[in-house]
Amino acid sequence: MSTKEEHQYAKKIKEQAYNLGFSLCGITTPESPLHIEEYHKWLSDGLHADMEYMGNDRARHMRANPKDIFPECKSILVVASNYYQGEFLHPSSDAISGKVARYAWGKDYHTVMKHRLQELMGFVECVSGKPVRYRLYVDTGPLLERELAQRAGLGWIGKNTMLINHNIGSWTLLAEAMLDIWLPPDEPYIVDRCGSCTFCIDACPTDAIMSDPRRIDSNKCISYLTIEHRGAINSDRRSDLDDWVFGCDICQDVCPWNNRFAMVEHDVDFAPVYPLPHLDLHNLLQMDQSEFSRTFSGSPVKRTKRSGLIRNASVALGNHGDDKSIHALANSLSEDPDPIIRAHSAWALGKIGDKKVVNLLNCARDNEDDVDVLVEIKAALEELSSQEKKQ
Ligand code: SF4
Ligand code: SF4
Fold this sequence. Notes:
This protein is of the alpha+beta class.
């Protein structure tokens, strides 16, 4: 192929990517990422919390050497889907609800984007007139995908570490296709348009955003704590979660590039699927395993598993502090088969701080045999007793 033909070929592939519903598409090479040392420092500083799969030897090696993932790779196609659906008002009912990060309101993006990428690969083969070998990744492979996206010209990496595009903001999800054919790479996006802005750093309720170099401390980040972290959430961090039960959008919500340029995408695959976008927290506490699986099958929310989501719902109810939640939390404390959920329900009852909670906690203590839950009940009773002394 001549250079002109190669550029036309790349142009056709990008047009087809847009036809398939992707909002951005760029091309880069499989060279080692420039920021790999910063990434290794992020790992060695323990900022990946307990996401061990990111720090193991294989993952480190592959992220540093994309060619070793797929030695035949000559080009990487990077695509982004805009999932922004606009603002959704809280339901008019007086249900107490929890917040879910926007990317998780609709169908599972892994499935949606993989399917679109597979269709795109069919087109690539059709246009090239020969079989093309490829590997597809949707937030799954050991790739530094934001750096690849920046190198493919899709935008810059903001202080909140999200990829930001100057036309549509940062409400996007990334995916990659490693191809065994050469395509002309796009110019990297080298301008940093954050300037002196610090809105995301100032707005982060947990001080998780570090500015020099730009990185997130996962140990503090609500997204990590509500989605990736398994087991009990450290009691010092629970108030930080406020009413987030899956992820956190604060550092994107405040970004001027989103406020000015976010484009509402009426992409049906990312439209909210009931009961999202707002989850009724009392209903969540009543969900058994089969109802959880039925409700969130095909949704990114299932990643937390039942234990994580209802743990988060208990914490959010404690943060709401509404005595209307006492009944639901007391039921959860006495009936839920999962000790992690019972422990967080005990904490939440202690936060609500109503006198009738003391009897409920005492009763639960007499019937509880899990050591960790007993510790939480004791702490909740102590919290209530110290509140009473102050009054
Ligand atoms: Fe902070 Fe939330 Fe952004 Fe995490 S997602 S860095 S907690 S604002
Ligand atoms: Fe950059 Fe400001 Fe957006 Fe943060 S809020 S990512 S500093 S432009």
